[in-house]
Design goal:
There is one protein chain. This protein has 290 residues and is mainly alpha-helical. The protein contains 14 helices and two strands. It has a two-stranded antiparallel ribbon with strand order 1-2. α3 crosses α4 and α6 crosses α10. The radius of gyration is 20 Å and the shape is globular. The N and C termini lie close together (11 Å).
């Protein structure tokens, strides 16, 4: 077995080579490098932290068991996200997807929530944190109004800034088709927000602070265990490889900024889940681990 020095800054190609030679440390580092990204895409895709953690593990198992089939015809990251895309588009529908609304239904639901002041309630957490949680929950909910393909294209193309070249490889469509589908998704989402959301259009009556109590009552915000603010590593716009080109003079850039200010989270039980994954019989046999 190779004894090369290995850490999370080591190139993916080296980590893959060492992993296939039976270096358990290299495979652990490879998983660590990509686990948080997979988790954050999953969290944005399904809107539930527990389901996202399960999806992350399912995808990681697929990645490591298929590692020997990676031919370096694309970057490893692109290869990984193609596996993510295929898994997410074909998986069983989760609790929030099962009865996912249309944009019109989602808007009607917001209208039906009564406007209330948080000062009328007693929660053991700052109001501003609850309001932020409500805002993120609401915006994640908006994305569930997309069909799965639209949602995936929006997440990789708009939130995480993948170019049309990489996005088309992941989605296995042409670059032109990727751009067209991304533009349509953005336009649909941003038209909805422009007509409904007070964050981007001050003339809209909907305000996060007024809807937070309603979100808590419906179970979308947990005032004891915050869903989207625990284990924050950074904001999305601080971790993307390339800063997104903004649409100068176009209102779309304002919506984009709001979504990219969402937290980028560390996947839960990271080290423990990696140990469990590497100790599984399938992985031990695949990589010749002792």
């Amino acid at each position: 077995m190779s004894k090369k020095s290995i850490n999370t800054t080591t190139l993916d190609t080296t980590l893959i080579e060492e992993s296939l030679l039976g270096n358990k440390e290299a495979l652990e580092c490879l998983i660590k490098k990509h686990q948080d990204w997979i988790y954050n895409i999953a969290l944005t895709f399904v809107g539930d932290k527990d389901e996202s953690a399960d999806l992350t593990q399912e995808v990681l198992i697929k990645i490591v068991t298929k590692l020997g089939s990676f031919k370096q015809k694309s970057s490893f990251k692109t290869w990984v996200y193609r596996i993510v895309k295929n898994h997410f588009l074909n998986m069983k529908r989760g609790k929030y997807e099962t009865n996912a609304p249309t944009f019109e239904q989602f808007g009607d639901g917001l209208d039906q929530l009564t406007n209330e002041s948080l000062s009328d309630y007693s929660y053991d957490i700052e109001d501003k944190l609850l309001i932020k949680e409500a805002k993120i929950s609401c915006m994640k909910g908006m994305l569930l109004c997309f069909n799965r393909e639209q949602r995936m294209i929006y997440i990789i193309g708009e939130l995480f800034g993948f170019s049309d070249a990489i996005g088309s490889e992941i989605m296995e469509i042409s670059k032109e088709n990727f751009r067209i589908k991304l533009h349509r998704s953005k336009k649909q989402l941003y038209n909805f927000m422009d007509n409904k959301c007070g964050l981007v259009n001050k003339s809209n009556p909907c305000r996060c602070a007024r809807k937070t109590a309603g979100f808590i009552k419906m179970g979308f915000v947990d005032p004891i265990h915050l869903h989207f603010q625990k284990n924050t590593i950074a904001n999305i716009n601080k971790v993307i490889d390339k800063k997104i080109e903004t649409y100068q003079g176009d209102v779309m850039s304002e919506y984009q900024k709001i979504f990219q200010e969402h937290p980028f989270l560390q996947s839960p039980d990271k080290l423990e889940s990696i140990k469990n994954l590497l100790s599984s019989k399938t992985i031990k046999e695949t990589f010749n681990f002792d």
